[in-house]
Amino acid sequence: MANKTSESFEFAKKKNKEEMKHHLITFASMIVFTLIAFGMVIGDFHRLFTIPVIILMAVVQVAFQLYYFMHMSHKGHGLPALMLYSGVGVAFLTILAMQTIVWW
Amino acid sequence: MSTATAQKQGFGATLWDYLTTVDHKKIAILYLVSGGIFFLAGGLEALLIRIQLMVPDNNFVSSGMYNQLITMHGTTMIFLAAMPFIFALMNIAVPLQIGARDVAFPFLNSLGFWLFFFGGVLLNLSWFTGAPDAGWTAYAPLSTTSPGHGMDFYVLGLQISGAGTLIGGINFLVTIINMRAPGMTYMRMPLFTWTALVTSVLILFAFPALTVGLFLMMFDRLFGAGFFDPTMGGNHVIWEHLFWIFGHPEVYILVLPIFGLFSDIISTFSKKRLFGYSAMVFATVLIGFLGFMVWAHHMFTTGLGPIANSIFAIATMAIAVPTGIKIFNWLFTMWGGVIRMTAAMLWTVAFIPSFTLGGFTGVMLAAAAADFQYHDTYFVVAHFHYVIVGGVVFGVFAGLHYWWPKMFGKILDEKLGKLAFWPFFIGFHLTFFIQHFLGLMGMPRRYWVFHSGDGLDLGNLISTIGAFFMTLGTLIFLYNVIITSIKGEKASADPWDARTLEWSIPSPPPFYNFKQTPLVRGLDPLWVEKRQGNGKMTPAEPLGDIHMPNNSFIPFMISLGSFVMGYGLIYQVDDSRWLFVAIAGLLITLGSMFVRSVKDDLGYHIHKEDLEEKGAGSE
């Protein structure tokens, strides 16, 4: 990040500021998610409601982690993203099969 | 052998060189030699099976021995022969085809090989005390309740060699994505490199399922767990799923690189650009994608229910489409080309109808309702031998003839090559074609004896005669290898008038491959230069120092440690003192890893001045 001109320096500064904002927002929302998850379990909601919501929040948190903290939102992450999603697909298919067509 | 300083070395020095090498070209030779030895072992097992089934009511081997033979034949051929052959070809060709000086992680490349090797040795040591006997698929509960230590050797041996394969796959993935020469875009990669890429992805996603399955089985057999035991709340169908989630992609892992090398060979020996290059790439990726959602077609009779069976049947039949695209593209590449029938091309041309026959029976087997009739009969045996022998083994022979000059600097004798082809080809069809009908007549798979009144005599006799023809073909090929290494003439850099980058450097290449990284100007880069340039690759960089990795003995030690640990784990069931052996093995492995972690190994540089002196380079 060698900023030769003040213009590009300003641009980088603005970009970093923007990124910092994103970090803070996602960090805050992750804390909120965790509070909600705990709250739902303490509040003794119905299981069929609690479990899907917690799983949904977990998925969102993983996405936050990957895209904002591990910089997958930046350019040049096409292949890692492709590989990640393929892996998720294979794992999902496996779990789906184990859940549905393994008889006892 | 492939170093620039090719002086006569003593045997000890050569051995040490190979034990410590991190050079992809030498690792290719290691994979080839060890795969070849295991191939001969698996072939011997096949021959014994066929002798047992030569005549009715035969008593050549006992029933228990027969079970060990079929199990070890399948396991050896898939994991210890076909896989290393694939890795041998990938190691020799992929870095050269993309204009790289080595793979991305040379140390890991060596580690992958040694893990595979020690896993294979562990598995085969079981012959002294009783080999695995539950079939290569090792279905629970047969495998979990099999007495003796045979299946323990299967579990630990495959676990260790599987780790090596996984490491190798990741290595090639990174190599192909990151180490391509300037101008070598994805859509300019030779088809072999493309298929190696897709195969590496399949390895990355498929092998963990095997690892998990083997771990569960290890805990069931060695530590009293009950993952596959219904009386303890387990379920043996889980093993079937895990095994085939790995096992089906595995057959594409084996055959895709072969498709790729056939594409390269056909285009080279037809003197034509590959017909429908982008369609071929698309078909490769599609086969890889679909390969992951068809595993349950091995389990139609397990009782998954009609809906699951239908879904998997349709997905399976869908694979015939990209495969058909490939078959037609190969035919259209040859159409109107200047075809040279070299030994490599002969194997390739024979592959097309042979493999297609296996594809047809594949579609037949994919029809779930019909599969209830075919399941576990010789029809299935015939089918998968048609695709694996007619595909992979033909492909390996073709690939060896094609790349032998690049590996060893000598051309395999063409006459002997063709002489080896004919008995193998005829024997192959004799052995396996008749097995379709044996299966339809009701001969079950894995049968130890059939009886004289069963009407299976003639078919089995023909099949056995075919097996002897295949043996003859293999022996002629071996003779060819020996004769060529003694008398063969030195090969030029480009003996086939070929099209891709590996033929732009001397045979065998100097250990740094490319003196200057070449600039790639199109698909089939060398051919582009032959038609539009001066026939030589243009360097993409000025001559400079080349950074090379140091040789290392650590991969051997890490693998040796896991081998010792595996042995200890197998026998600690009998006597807990064997646990000390297991721990000793673990310490060897961890200690070697520790040394690797704390010791700086920065490699060395070949200096520009030395390169200028030698004169050999990217020409």
UniProtKB/TrEMBL annotation, chain A:
It holds the Pfam family COX4_pro. The keyword Transmembrane applies. The chain crosses the membrane at residues 24-43, 49-70, 82-103. GO terms for cellular component: plasma membrane. It is found in: Cell membrane. It is a multi-pass membrane protein. Its main location: membrane. The keyword RNA-binding does not apply. Keywords: Cell membrane, Membrane, Transmembrane, Transmembrane helix. InterPro entries: Cyt_c_oxidase_su4_bacillaceae, Cyt_c_oxidase_su4_prok. NCBIfam families: CoxD_Bacillus (TIGR02908). This is Cytochrome B6. It comes from Pontibacillus marinus BH030004 = DSM 16465. The lineage of its organism: Bacteria, Bacillati, Bacillota, Bacilli, Bacillales.
From TrEMBL, chain B:
InterPro entries: Cyt_c_oxase-like_su1_dom, Cyt_c_oxase-like_su1_sf, Cyt_C_Oxase_1, Cyt_c_Oxase_su1_BS, Cyt_c_oxidase_su1_bac. GO terms for biological process: electron transport coupled proton transport; oxidative phosphorylation; respiratory electron transport chain. Belongs to the heme-copper respiratory oxidase family. It comes from the Bacteria. Its main location: membrane. This is Cytochrome c oxidase subunit 1. It holds the Pfam family COX1. Pathway: Energy metabolism; oxidative phosphorylation. Cytochrome c oxidase is the component of the respiratory chain that catalyzes the reduction of oxygen to water. Subunits 1-3 form the functional core of the enzyme complex. CO I is the catalytic subunit of the enzyme. Electrons originating in cytochrome c are transferred via the copper A center of subunit 2 and heme A of subunit 1 to the bimetallic center formed by heme A3 and copper B. One of its GO terms (cellular component) is plasma membrane. GO terms for molecular function: cytochrome-c oxidase activity; heme binding; metal ion binding. It is a multi-pass membrane protein. Keywords: Cell membrane, Copper, Electron transport, Heme, Iron, Membrane, Metal-binding, Respiratory chain, Translocase, Transmembrane, Transmembrane helix, Transport. It catalyses: 4 Fe(II)-[cytochrome c] + O2 + 8 H(+)(in) = 4 Fe(III)-[cytochrome c] + 2 H2O + 4 H(+)(out). Signal peptide: none annotated. Its EC number is 7.1.1.9. It is an enzyme of class 7 (translocase). Residues 10-521 form the Cytochrome oxidase subunit I profile domain. It comes from Pontibacillus marinus BH030004 = DSM 16465.
